[in-house]
Amino acid sequence: MNLNLSGKYALVGGSTQGIGRAAAIELALLGANVILLARNENALRETFATLDIGKGQHHRYLVADYSDASALGEKITAYLREHPAIHILVNNTGGPPSGAVLNATTDEFLAAFHNHLLCNHILAQAVVPGMKAEQYGRIINVISTSVKQPIPGLGVSNTIRAAVGNWSKTLSIELAPFGITVNNVLPGATKTTRLQSIIDNKANRQGKSSEDITNEMIAEIPAGRIAEASEVANAIAFLATPAAAYITGINVPVDGGRTSSL
Length: 262
Fold this sequence. Notes:
It is a single chain. The chain has helices spanning 18-29, 41-48, 69-82, 106-134, 155-175, 193-206, 210-219, 229-240, and strands spanning 9-13, 33-38, 60-63, 88-91, 137-142, 180-187, 251-254. By secondary structure, the chain is of the alpha/beta class. The protein folds into 2 domains: 9-188 and 229-253, Rossmann fold; 192-226, no CATH class.
């Protein structure tokens, strides 16, 4: 099984913490040259220092904020004018705040649509020409199990994640003839700052402790525990490799069996 990413360039969004950081670390371990993408330069430098260089990799980072799509597009376009093509794109950024869908404002929907679908699209448009030229492309979108089963209390997220999922499926059909795969990784409960925020908010609303909410969440997971970010990163990394060349247009839940649908 060919898991070697030596000579490949991977752009990883939201790569200073959580799943994005774990994915960047794993891709580097497989030999990829990683381009970190996030808004906090100090955190980018810290993550950059952790990436493996044992296979002669040359890593870089880009400072960009997903709240400004046009600036993000300009940043990646400028990068590609001066550097090799990107073979792997990991679309990943922080999720929308929790809350009931009926209480959400139109601005909250627009912001989430902008930060997730539009920024994913801009990055894909920028890197696909290089993928076609290199005859190698992997686009991996980190979404949520809510694509399969809406999660209570995450109204805006449930809505926008579904839009990204359908965008991804459509893109996979268009790009398959060029040897470019497009897949979604759907994390379940994973040890990240976002999950802790969701737990704390739910605890405040229900007048419970965060520990109680965490235990209730674990009780719904057949595997009996919350995932490590590295476990989600493993799925992302596999889909980026040559071994996954014939896998495209799918959703891959990494949730310990929690999602009740197939």
